[in-house]
Amino acid sequence: MPPTGTTPLNTGALHFRWRQHVYDLSYDERHLTVTWSNRCYSGTTKTPLWRVMEAFVTDRQPSERALAIARSSRWALAAGVIVWFSQVRAVLPLLAPALLLFGMVGFVRCARLLYPVRCTRVLTRYGEELAAIPHLPALENSRVRFEEGLLAAVRASSEDEAAG
Questions:
Q1: Are 144 and 14 in contact, with CB atoms under 8 Å apart?
Q2: What is the per-residue pLDDT for 109?
Q3: Using an 8 Å Cβ cutoff, are 70 and 110 in contact?
Q4: pTM value?
Q5: In the β-sheet with 129-134, what is the strand arrangement from edge to edge?
Q6: Cα first-last separation, the chain
Q7: Where are the domains of the chain?
Q8: Integer Cα distance of 102 and 162 in angstroms
Q9: Is the pLDDT of residue 6 over 70?
């Protein structure tokens, strides 16, 4: 049995899928480990708990990917309208409909992503984001337990670091 005030190994883990990524967050008495993967890439970060901020940030941020899709769709729609009313339409008759279709499909795709989901952000003391945990209904109970356990482990690690 571990001494009082320390977090036993492997007590905290959270696994979820969000925005086409799979995330595994876990912590022990010394480190927070964040692993993410997608079809094309994966990565892992391991951060000492004493570097993690003792208060998590809860906010709503729109997806950067959705904003990029909206920007490109906006330009495609504008180009489609310009081509439709220009002399280029006579030379390339399908260019304007193709640009308009591309722009509309992009707006439909990003409409779902633009709605900001409430997230808990785990930050370092230097402001670097380690993880964003979405507040999804299916994840609610395990998310709350994980956050409470991680906060307790961070506070215990910070006290240990300050003591010596």
A1: no
A2: 82
A3: yes
A4: 0.66
A5: 57-60, 118-123, 129-134
A6: 23
A7: 12-51+136-163, 64-114
A8: 57
A9: no
